[in-house]
Automatic annotation (TrEMBL):
Protein's membrane topology: Multi-pass membrane protein
Protein name per Swiss-Prot or TrEMBL: Undecaprenol kinase
Main localization of the protein described in the UniProt heading: membrane
Single GO term (MF): ATP binding
Length: 135
């Protein structure tokens, strides 16, 4: 997990120990999620949906395995959306003018998010459905 900027030379504020490098890497990742949240409207939707799902899970009193399924689904959607954002940024960098392959790369990345989101929706139906549609 690195940023596009170059690291300063050793001894000039550059992390030297493994722990310092891991902490710096974690900081880059958090900064990346924050940057995506500030610029990507789809992530705002995912944030709202995540809050709603967490609230619904608390309301329903989900069992541990249900929380695990929900957490994996939420994490998969967020991960796919962040990867899509990264792919779009790289494609824009290397192909500022329209190119059919650049468009295809962006469409496929967006399609991956759609597939994961639909799978998460199915998990949501399987987990929450019985709480609302008991016979």
């Amino acid at each position: 997990m690195t940023t596009g900027s170059k690291l300063p030379p050793a001894g000039a504020g550059r992390p030297t120990t493994l722990l310092q490098r891991r902490a710096a890497s974690f900081g880059h990742a958090v900064r990346g999620v924050g940057a995506a949240l500030r610029t990507e409207v789809h992530l705002w939707f995912h944030a709202a949906a995540t809050a709603a799902v967490l609230g619904l899970g608390l309301y329903c009193g989900l069992q541990r395995w249900e929380w695990a399924a929900v957490a994996l689904s939420v994490g998969a959607v967020w991960g796919a959306e962040l990867l899509n954002t990264a792919i779009e940024a790289v494609v824009d960098l290397v192909s500022p003018e329209y190119h059919p392959l650049a468009g295809r790369a962006k469409d496929v990345a967006a399609g991956a998010v759609l597939v994961v989101a639909l799978a998460a929706l199915a998990v949501g139906g399987l987990v929450f459905g019985p709480y609302f549609f008991r016979s």
